Amino acid sequence: MKLNLNIQPLSSWITATKEPLLISGPCSAETEDQLVATAHLLKNTGRVTALRAGIWKPRTRPGEFEGIGSIGLEWLKRAKAETGLPTAVEVATAKHVEEALAAGVDILWVGARSTANPFTVQEIADALKGHDVPVMVKNPVNPDISLWIGAIERINNAGITKLAAIHRGFSSYEKSAFRNEPMWDIAIHLKTLAPHLPIICDPSHISGNRDLIGYVSQKALDLDMQGLMIESHIDPSVAWTDAKQQVTPAALSDLIDHLTLRKPDTNNAQVNDKLAELRNNIDKIDDLLIQKIAERMKIAEQIGTYKKENNITILQVNRWDEILNKRVNYGKALKLSPDFTEKLLELLHTESIRRQTEIMNEGQAAGQQAEKLTHV
Ligand code: PEP
Ligand code: MN
Description:
Distance between the termini: 15 Å
Largest sheet: 8 strands, parallel, barrel
Strand order of the largest sheet: 1-2-3-4-5-6-7-8
Bound molecules: phosphoenolpyruvate, manganese (II) ion
Shape: elongated
Number of domains: 2
Radius of gyration: 25 Å
Oligomer: single chain
Helix content: 40-55%
CATH topology of the largest domain: TIM Barrel
CATH superfamily of the largest domain: Aldolase class I
Structural class: alpha/beta
Number of strands: 8
């Protein structure tokens, strides 16, 4: 089901100076000189459309730099007056919203830690009522699309129609090369639920280090995200927050120069014909897959009936291990990643077991009802 959001197009509140749309600036405003000098260098790249800076910083541990506070708003005013760049800050309380709006900040964003807390989001939404300011909502720290959607809906219900989502990756227990796992499928899911909601990618917080930012940015553009928010600092080596992931304005410019801009479609008839042919082939295979999966389920049900008649348990771990090992190896030979084959088989197996359980427990209405509820 699509989300019922009342949203104005991105172009109604921000126009990219140059493609791709780029919002950049330091993780934190530290000093007036640092902010204003960074803003000038960013403006001079000719690439940047808006200046970001954290004034109030949500820190995971107390004692870390918690942001310069309201004085930073004065610095942002000066940076905007001198460069002409519209400004963006993170807001986490009603007071932040009021102060930022009073200081003429152009765009507000809700940070990942705030999105994870509906009380905070509602407080921000209430403070926004009656204001016509663009708001960007970062995904929550944890991989929960409902929290992300909930925050977007709360802000939208407050009358904010100049809305965008920011994809900044998700916290994960397993350590990887990324500071925050991109989990692109969650951003894609949001896009399918709300096709008109612009999504901006924040490769800085996904990457956590400078080296991955180009790769993540390219992937975001290839997934048709509408823009990038990248942290930039005049001298990242001495940055007070997120030093490892910030880039100088010159490095930012170079990074953007190396991105390839692709279009979602083309007018070239030959290319379109070829694409249509390939998509047609995919559709045929998908139909076959569904048909075969339905056949597989029918057989699983027959096995269920047979096991019931002969008092055999549904799950036989040895048999499952055998299916898994054989198919994962077969998949490997056909260039399917073991991880993919395993996930696919597990999905099929869970559904087979659910059906067999239904057959085993026929007549036990309460249990069946409970199984159904856990499988919605
Ligand atoms: C930030 O943008 O500097 C920030 C704190 O980001 P996030 O809310 O994504 O952690
Ligand atoms: Mn940061």
